[in-house]
Structure formats: C-alpha cells, structure tokens
Amino acid sequence: MMEGTAAEYHSKDFEWEELRDEVENDASLRYHLVPFVASSSSSSPSSDPPPDDADAWRSFHRRHSAGKFFKERRYLLKEFPELLCSGNSIQVLELGCGNGSTILPILRAKESIVVYACDCSEEVLQMAKEIVATTSDVSLDHRLHTFLLDFTVHKFPDWLFCSSCQRASFSKPVNLSSDSREQKLRKLNAPSFLREKQCCIGGVDFVTLIFTLSAIPFQRMSSVIEKCFSVLKPGCLLLFRDYGLYDMTMLRFLPEQRMGFREYMRSDGTFSYFFSLDIVRDLFLGAGFTELELEYCCITSVNRQRGKKMQRVWIHGKFQKPI
C-alpha cells in the first residue's frame, strides 16, 4: 500500500492572485499576456500545429529511454483519495501514460485496481511495463494493460466501452449471451484479457489526465475530453492535474516559442499549454462533465544547488460524468 509512504500533499504555499499581479506588472513578461498573432515568416512556427506533432513526443521518450527521467508521482493518492476509497474491481484509464510515473502509485494503492494505459509511443509503453515489473517488490504487471493510441487523432477502441453498452448503462444491463454481428466484430479486435462473452470492459471508473492535456494542441483538447467522457461509467470521475497559468515554466519561454495564446513549443518540438481555471472549466463542462473540485495548486520549491526559490503553479481538478 502506498498510503503510509505517499509524500505529503500541499496546495497553497502562496496566493495565485499575488503571483498574477507580479507577472502582469513586469514589463519584461508582457509578451505572455498579449493576443497571439501568427508570424508570416517561414522561420516562425505556424499557428496551425503540424500533423505529426505526436512524433515530437515519441522522439522525446526515445531520448529518455534509460529511465532516468522517471519520478514516481506519489502525491496522487493524497490529491485523489477516491482511488483508495472506491470499492472492488476498479478500472482506471490513464491517458498519455509516459514511462509509468502515474501508473505505479495507482497500482500500488489497491490490489483491486486494474489500469488501462495508452500512449502514442510504443517504446514508452514498453518502458512503462518494464518499470512497473521491476520497481515494486510485489508483482503488479498483471494488472496493467497497455495499448498504443494517439488519442488526439483516433477514438478509443470499442473494447473499452462500446456504444451499445454505453446506451445500456443508462437504462438496463446489456444481454451479452446473444451476440449481434457488431458485437462479434468487436470481439475479434478485443485484447486477450477480455472474457469470451464480453464485447467490452463496460467502461472505466476513473480517467486520469496527469500533465497530458497541456501537451497537445489547444484545438484538439475538446475532442479528447469528449472521448474521456464517452468511456467513463455514469457517476464516475476524471482526475486532472496539469500546468497552471504563470507557472515558472511558462515564464521561461521566449517570445518566438509562442504557438498561440498561452501555448508554446519547446526546442524539441513538444507542446506546452498553461491553463487558467476558466479555460479548464469551459473545456470540461462543455463536454458534459460536472465540476466537483477545481483550484490552483501554488507550490514553492527550492533549487538547492542554486539556492533559488521557484514558484510552481498547477491545476487540480475533479470532474464527474452525470448519472
């Protein structure tokens, strides 16, 4: 169990409004605040994302394939205690799982949790499986099912939550004893861990979006959240944590790295977006979710080598699919 060893979770070392005033009154940072105007110069990034933006993340993970980039997110169980308080047979879908830093504490939390994890990189999925298999004293890998998917472009596979079962979840249980032709076709594409008479796993209890949504182009975010909504069981939760507006990382980007309003591209081609509470609220409520919790997490960390304090801003959110 992770409860006893999880790092203590803090959310308020400073007031976000004070940081906002400091940033907005600093003339050297004003370029972060003005509306974005795409440059006509061919040397500047286009306002439209390249069609292969997922390739940048695949390259990123190849560069960090040694696993040194791995840092287990132990704070998740403090931030999202619902993972510990839920009943038996909990199914979690982790989007953009990376090297497994979110998967590992979730699997350790309870023996009844099964994680379905996807990413656009086959290499990083293999890395996640290896880390989960070797990091813990107890075998966890039998409760982890990974699958390759660029969810910014493609929909989730039917074996997660097929349309007929989604409709039935709002009325009455679907009869799986007599298969329609459509259900039989789904079974042919279903993974081996599904029982023979199942057309899908029947939806998930939690979707985790942990520093994932900010890594995709803003105009694709709404469709990703709608896909998350579609695979959740009614009444279940999406757990969200990501970069907040005026985080230290945002303020380090240069003017030429802007790809849009509050959207930036790193030198390696990967994206980063910085959320305000209003934007997060609009995105999730627009997809049909109900807001349970939404706040800025304002944390002061210290670089001991440089003796420098760093003000980090993250967004914490919990959203529910209505019953």
From TrEMBL:
One of its GO terms (molecular function) is RNA methyltransferase activity. The keyword Transferase applies. Its EC number is 2.1.1.-. Pfam families: Methyltransf_23. Gene3D superfamilies: Vaccinia Virus protein VP39. The keyword Transport does not apply. It comes from the Eukaryota. One of its GO terms (biological process) is methylation. Keywords: Methyltransferase, Transferase. Belongs to the methyltransferase superfamily. METL family. S-adenosyl-L-methionine-dependent methyltransferase. PANTHER family: METHYLTRANSFERASE-RELATED, TRNA N(3)-METHYLCYTIDINE METHYLTRANSFERASE. This is tRNA N(3)-methylcytidine methyltransferase. It comes from Musa acuminata subsp. malaccensis. The lineage of its organism: Eukaryota, Viridiplantae, Streptophyta, Embryophyta, Tracheophyta.
